Amino acid sequence: MSTAVPPLGRLATLRRYPVKSLVGETLAGVHVGTRGVEGDRLWSVRDLDGKLGSGKSTRRFRRMDGLLDLTAAYDGDVPVIGFPDGTRVRGDDEAVHAALSAHVGRPVTLAREEDVSHFDDGPLHLVTTASLRHVSRAHGRVVDPRRLRPNFVLETEGEGMVEDGWVGTRIALGDELVVEIVQPMPRCVMVDLPQAGLPTDGGLLRTVTDLNQACLGVLATVVRPGTVAIGDEARPAP
């Protein structure tokens, strides 16, 4: 009789967000280092006082409406910003600052991460299809995982917040990467907001709040860097 431990799930979607708070790109595979997915949220839109453009205002961040209307994808190691009118501007083109400023209605610049981390709470965010089905049932309509801005969507069986039960454990993704699940992912108003390709979904934050104390998905840190690809299995790791 086999004693092999069954997989927790399989990597169904892999996403990276070259610029914080902009819509990102879907990948087939990527290297994950101690900072997280290579190039993830490495750039940001910055106000004149150095605060990072976000969907909320905090000590580090400043809410900037319109960022989710924009897309970002890498051309080599340079992000290319897509605007609603179809214009695309490279991040190494000086015109990008004026274009972003015009879009958000205030003077801003595009800048690479320096001393201040661009991450809200941690370097990796994953969510399972089981929890998405659970929230969708409570919400009364399908919840698109793009609203949650995860790095990994794991295809899992059943329904329920299964990843909450992984907090404090280590998971191997593929043959190389090992991560530690450190806490549930707190949600904010960004899940309700419209973004490129998705309309407003008012009430989603309230649904998640009522269902699971405003948490959906989990945050992870990297124990052992490695490369992952769509289809890789997730398994418990020692």
UniProtKB/TrEMBL annotation:
MOSC domain residues: 93-237
Pfam families found in the cross-reference section: MOSC, MOSC_N
Protein name per its UniProtKB record: MOSC domain-containing protein
